[in-house]
Each structure stands twice: as structure tokens, then as C-alpha cells.
Amino acid sequence: MTGHGGAGGEYKDLVVFLAAAGVMVPLFNRLKISPILGFLAAGVLLGPDGLARLADSAPWLSWLTISDAAQIRSLSELGVAFLLFMIGLELSWERLKSMRRLVFGLGLTQVAVCTVVLAALFMLMGQTLVSAAVLGLGLSLSSTAVVMPVLAERGRVQTASGRATFAVLLAQDLAVAPILITVTVLAALAQGGGEIDAGTLRTALLTLVPAAIGLALLVGLGRLVLRPMFRSVARAKARGQGQEMFVAASLLVVVGAGVAAQAAGLSMSLGALIAGVLLAETEFRREVELSIEPFKGLLLGVFFVGVGISLDLDVVVANPLGVFGLALALTAIKVGLIFGAARLWGVKTKAAIETALVLGPAGEFAFVILGAGLVEGIASPAFTGTVLVAATISIFTIPAMAALAGRLTREARPGVPDLPEEALEPSDIDDKVLIVGFGRVGRLVGEMLTEHGQPYLAVDSNPATVAKGRAERANVFYGDAARPEMMRLCGIDTARAVIVTMDAPAQVDEVVRTARLLRPDLILIARARDERHAERLYQLGVTDAVPETTEAALQLAENTLVDLGVPMGLVLASIHERRDRYRVLFQEAMPDNLARPRRARALRSASRT
Predict the structure, then answer these.
(1) CB 250 within 8 A of CB 60
(2) Angle, CA of 293, 299 and 304, to the nearest 5°
(3) Tell me, what's the pLDDT at 532?
(4) 335 FRET partner, CA 20 to 30 A, in 71, 179, 464, 561?
(5) How far is 76 from 302, CA to CA, in rounded Å?
(6) Which pLDDT value is given to residue 588?
(7) What are phi and psi of 525, to 5 degrees?
(8) How far apart are CA 80 and CA 176, in angstroms?
(9) Which of 21, 16, 488 has its CA nearest to residue 29?
(10) Could you give phi then psi for residue 545, rounded to 5 degrees?
């Protein structure tokens, strides 16, 4: 590291980055500008072409700049890996299979067509066939790290265009490893004078063998190891011994899978994506997502800062028309080609426009692939440097392209089925009843909901309970529903109702508070220990509280009266009347604005019976 020695110098870049994250990003948020642009702008400002240029006249500015860009770039690779891991958590093998037409049809068509057309353009600009092929492969990809957060920020991920965009990005991510292998083959071809002989083919095939073996081992070991490992960590957490262990295990999976993939000749990001897909099949998916989220955001910030640092302003100043013209040409060509491919594969016009605009700029993997081309000696350093600057500038335009797409398609109704049926598979958390606690009572509630065609999603903090439910093929996940983040991941924003079935009153109260805070309008039904607990739950805002002691007494009375020969209709009427009377009494402790309409409903019900 250059600049400053000693302990302070070693951590100076980290302090500068954290200061930028703590100042620039909140400032951009306050101005209602994408925080992604905040990190990109911080990279430009703190890089060698920013404040560092003034360090000779003002040496103190060196403490406000990032002096080791290579270290930042190595950390940024982790950020991309964490992003793809989170994307993998939202996938499943079934969903990947259901989207195969868009992923392997539209996605691979886009990569192939953009590669061919861009390579032809670079050949017209004087590049050799091999160099043009590498440039075309690198620039055919788009930025998962920028596009997905931008779409999420605008609420476009679940729209037709959002799903088409996700399918294309997924295909591009899957194509990274084959592209890197292709670059190695092209390097061997270039060294052989451009002729394909038996030795070149043999070398190419040998490079594929470790990758295929590594991929198979990664999938096989993941299926065998991940669930038992997280189950053990969850048991420790349930005993109060594993709060940090869950985070550590999640980090281990992301980094370990990435390193294992790299050792097999694959990209770190692909390894993290596979690990995410494997964990998506387990009950720990949502807890892992919560554990990883803070690290993902921070490391992605490092990535964007690294992109900003890599922007060589000298190249821009030396030839502004050429650099900006190249960025515009590359983006425009990709937009046109992606729009055509999307229409070809059944995406309707407005969704195709939005998909094409956000995918038109270059992506982060351009730096990886073109860097590999430079290492292999098959790309012109000077020309490649200019292309990378143009690619960086295009990445800066993604938020603006998304805003433009929103303006062009704003008349389109959100959620219109503009895609083939398989692309419109609903989320696994939309419009479901959320059951908190999946013990004896929760399982019975779930069975009754299923019997009457009502889908549900359950969450429980006991790993043994969750494992038993998963063994019975129930839709249950591990997690603490008292945490607002977990409630949101479980779909409380779209849930039809929440039923709290836990037998610990304090835990029930916490979940009720969280649910009511997040959704004031939600149907919220909770299990109560006794009458006093039911009164407290009504004060907290439940729609209905079901006290165990009262219900047990009513059930005993019902069975006794029926056995004594009292007609069933009269017994049921009196039980319902007594239950409604108790409900009115419990609600007496509620604030008037909450209790009045519920008391009225209960009294009307009692009068009918």
C-alpha cells in the first residue's frame, strides 16, 4: 500500500470508505438519488483522478483518498458474490426449471447476439478476430450488481419487465464461467497462430474437466452438508449460544462456496449463486438472508467505489467525444438487440423496452473478462483501457436508464401478464396466511387452511419443530417472527392474515406488536393463555384473541350438554352467545378507536344467536 505506513496507513483506506458510506450515501438518499450513484461518485472523488490530484499542493488530502485501488477491487469481488448469493436464495431448482424458456432462451440469445454484433463492430474498428471476440463477450453482459438494486428500489422486480430482466441477468451470470474458459481457448488459438489443431482442442477440453468436476462436487456437498450444518447452528442459537454463529455460518457458506468455485476454474460469483440456490431449498433460507443482508450492502458499496476509482479521467479528457461516443454506441446497440430478442421470445413491447434500457449498459463482469483478456495477451491494452472507461461511464447511466424506462412505460398497468406463463410464477409469499409458531396448534391450523384451499406460510424459531414440519412437506421456515425484518421476508406486506399460535405469552405479545406495527389493517388472531392475557392482546391490537382456558371450558360445557340430551342447535347457539359475550368483555380494555367497531360486531353476532 502506498501513502502512509504503520497501523494507521494500513486501515486508512477502510476508514475513508466507511466515511464515504456514512456521508455520501445518506446525502444522496436525502436528495432522492440512487445510493448506487453515491458510491460511484465517491469512487471518482476519492480515487487517483479525484482529490488525489490535489495532494501535491495539499498533502493532508492524501488522508481523504483511497491509495490502494487493487485492495478495494479484491473486496468488491466479494460484494458481487454476496449479491448473487442473495439472488440464489430467491431461486429454487423448480423455479429455475419453470423459467428455463426465458433463462436459456431469451438470456442466451441475448448473450450470443450481442457478442457477435459487438465483435463485428470492433473488427470494423481495426481489432483482430480474437481480440474483438473477447471484447464482444465482455460487453455483452450487463450489471447484475447495479440493475437489480435499481429495479428493487423502483419496485419493478415483480413486474413483467423485472422478471424478464432477472432471467437475462441469471443467464449472463451462468455464462460467465464458460466465457472465461472461452477466453483461455482463444488465447491458446492466438498463440497457435489462429489455427485450431488437435493440441488446442485438447487443451480447451482439459480446462473444462476441473470446472465440471468442481461444479458437481459443489452441488453434491452442498446438498449433503448445508442443512445439517445450519440445523446444528440453529439448535445452538435456540439455547442462546449461537447469535453470532448463524452469521458466521452464513458468511462461511458464501465465501467458502466462492473460493471452492475459483479453485475449480469457475467464478467466485457462480459458486456463491449455487450455494444460494441450494440453501433456498432449506428451512433456513430466510434467516440466512437476514444474516447476510448487511454484509452484502456494504461489500456492494465497495464494488461501486471500485468502479468509480477505475474511471480514468485522463482518457476521458484526452478524447471525450471518442469515449462518450463509444459508450453511447455500445449502449444503443445493446438496447436495440435486447429489445429485438425480448420481442422474439414473447415479451410484449413495453416490458421489452424497459428490459432493454436497463440491460443496455455494460456490467461488472466486463472488467473481469477484459482483464483476463489482457492477462492472456490477446487484447490491446490501450484500446481495452478506452473500452473499459466507456463501460464504466455506461454503468453510471443505469439509474437514469431505469427512470427513462419508467417514463416511457408509465401508462402500462403494473403486473400486466406481459410474459409467458412460466415467467409469471407468483412469489412464494404473496397472498398467504402467515402462521407464527408451528407446534401442535400451528400444524392443526395449517392442516385446516390447506383442507379449505387457503395457502399459508409458517415460521418457527425451534429448529426441531421446523424440521418435523418440513419432513411432513409443510411450508415452514426457521426464524424469529418478532423481528420486523423476518416478518417482511415472510410476506407480511401482502399476507391475508397472521395467526400467532405460540404457547409463551411474552413471545406472543412481541410478535403481535411487530405485526400490528407493520400492518395496522391486518387480520391478526392470537392464542392467549387466559382471560387476562386475552385482554392484553386486545390492547395490543389483535383482531381476535383465543384464550385457552375459556375455550377449554366452553368445549367441556358443549360436550356435557350434548351428552345430557340437549339439542345440538341450542347448545351451539348458547356457546356462540357466551363466546361473543366474553369477547366483548375482553375488548373493554381496548382503546375506543379500536374496540368500538369490534364490540359492535360482537353484539350484533350475539343478538342474532
Answers:
(1) no
(2) 125
(3) 84
(4) 179
(5) 5
(6) 63
(7) -115, 130
(8) 13
(9) 21
(10) -120, 135
- For residues 347 and 343, what is the distance between their CA atoms, to the nearest angstrom? 5
458 bridge partner residues: 435, 476
Q: What is the pLDDT of residue 356?
A: 93
Task: Report whether 502 contacts 533 (CB < 8 A).
Answer: no
CA 153 to chain centre: 12
In the block, which residue shows the cell 448506487?
36
CB 116 within 8 A of CB 341: no
Query: How much is the pTM?
Result: 0.68
Query: CA–CA distance from 479 to each of 243, 436, 463, 466, 584 (Å)?
Result: 12, 10, 9, 9, 34
pLDDT for 435 equals: 93
Residue 500, strand partner residues: 436, 526
Query: What confidence score (pLDDT) does residue 127 get?
Result: 86
Question: Which pLDDT does position 141 carry in this prediction?
Answer: 92
> CA-CA distances (angstroms) from residue 487 to 290, 435, 493, 571?
11, 11, 8, 40
In 3D, which of 371, 484, 370, 348 has the Cα closest to residue 419? 348
| Beta-carbon count within 10 A of 258 CB | 27
Instruction: Determine how many CB atoms are found less than 10 A away from the CB of residue 8.
Output: 10
Looking at residue 326, what is its pLDDT? 92
CA distance 307 to 328: 18
Distances (CA, A) of 204 to 135, 190, 266, 572: 20, 13, 14, 78
Is the Cα dihedral 341, 346, 348, 352 positive or negative? negative
Average pLDDT per consecutive 10 residues, the chain (609 residues; last block may be shorter): 47 74 72 72 77 73 72 72 77 69 88 94 88 90 82 76 85 78 71 55 64 79 86 75 74 86 76 83 83 75 76 79 92 95 89 92 83 73 86 87 84 44 47 88 88 89 88 88 87 89 90 91 88 85 83 75 81 76 63 49 48
CA dist 456 and 469 (Å) reads 13
Max Cα distance, the chain (Å): 101
Which residue's entry shows cell 449460544?
A: 241
Other C-beta atoms within 10 Å of 341: how many? 25
Q: How far is CA 417 from the centre of its chain?
A: 22
Alpha helix stretches (DSSP H) within 69-197 = 69-89, 93-98, 100-101, 108-124, 129-139, 144-153, 160-191
CA distances from 264 to 184, 260, 274, 364 (A): 14, 6, 14, 21
Sign of the Cα pseudo-torsion (393, 174, 103, 221, in order) = negative
Residues 6+ apart with CB under 8 A from 232: none
Q: How far is CA 95 from the centre of its chain?
A: 15
Work out the number of other CB atoms within 10 angstroms of the CB of residue 563: 8
Buried b / exposed e across 203-238, counting CB within 10 Å, b at 16+? bbeebeeebeebbeebeeebeeebbeebbebbeebe
Query: What one-character-per-residue DSSP string does 364-395 give?
Result: THHHHHHHHHHHTT-S-HHHHHHHHHHHHHHH
521 class by beta-carbon count within 10 Å (0-12 exposed, 13-18 middle, 19+ buried): exposed
Question: How is residue 197 annotated by DSSP?
Answer: -
Closest Cα partner for 298 from 252, 266, 251? 251
Q: What is the DSSP letter of 426?
A: P
